[in-house]
């Protein structure tokens, strides 16, 4: 398992592989189907317990019409099981796709998965109610770096916002400028 300082995230101009995950109804979802409709704004979140993730998704939701106007869609990747993702939707009003990243497969592929230190895990679980062992597919308590990628129809990363400081998130205006 990597530490936060060891993850780098995929770089711009990297071509990604297609991936599949499940949606909140446990239905299969294939990323290439989203790319058939245009560019995708791909966002990694930590979970429904994270106030910064929720604030970010509220802003994305408010900017969704402008993102759609640019011919793009939004897909969010969460390490949480569907019952917890439903809480994210309730808290944020999200009308975009949120997928469950079982076994952290997608976050690993994007080199964004790390193990928080013991103090952080204690705070997340006790103060913020993350329930990482219960809400994820295993008990490792790993998390993705909150990151945003714009993926072109040819599976190439056009732009990224990857910052190990979970407070720093992509803004809707930044996303729109790069679409």
From TrEMBL:
Signal peptide: none annotated. InterPro entries: AhpC/TSA, Thioredoxin-like_sf, Thioredoxin_domain, Thioredoxin_ResA/DsbE_sf. Gene3D superfamilies: Glutaredoxin. Residues 10-179 form the Thioredoxin domain. Keywords: Plasmid. The keyword Lipid metabolism does not apply. The keyword Mitochondrion does not apply. It comes from the Bacteria. This is Alkyl hydroperoxide reductase/ Thiol specific antioxidant/ Mal allergen. It comes from Emticicia oligotrophica (strain DSM 17448 / CIP 109782 / MTCC 6937 / GPTSA100-15).
């Amino acid at each position: 398992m990597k530490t936060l300082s060891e993850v780098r995230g995929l770089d711009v101009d990297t071509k990604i592989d297609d991936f599949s995950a499940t949606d909140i109804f446990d239905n299969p979802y294939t990323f290439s189907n989203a790319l058939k409709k245009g560019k995708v704004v791909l966002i990694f979140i930590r979970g429904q317990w994270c106030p910064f993730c929720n604030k970010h998704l509220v802003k994305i939701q408010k900017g969704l019409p402008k993102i759609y106007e640019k011919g793009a869609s939004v897909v969010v990747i969460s390490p949480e099981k569907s019952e917890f993702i439903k809480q994210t939707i309730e808290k944020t009003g999200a009308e975009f796709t949120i997928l469950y990243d079982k076994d952290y497969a997608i976050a690993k592929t994007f080199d964004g998965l790390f193990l928080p230190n013991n103090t952080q895990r204690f705070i997340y679980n006790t103060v913020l109610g993350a329930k990482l062992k219960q809400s994820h597919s295993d008990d490792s308590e790993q998390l993705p770096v909150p990151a945003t990628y714009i993926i072109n129809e040819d599976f190439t990363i056009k732009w990224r916002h990857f910052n190990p400081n979970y407070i720093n998130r992509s803004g809707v205006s930044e996303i729109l400028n790069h679409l």
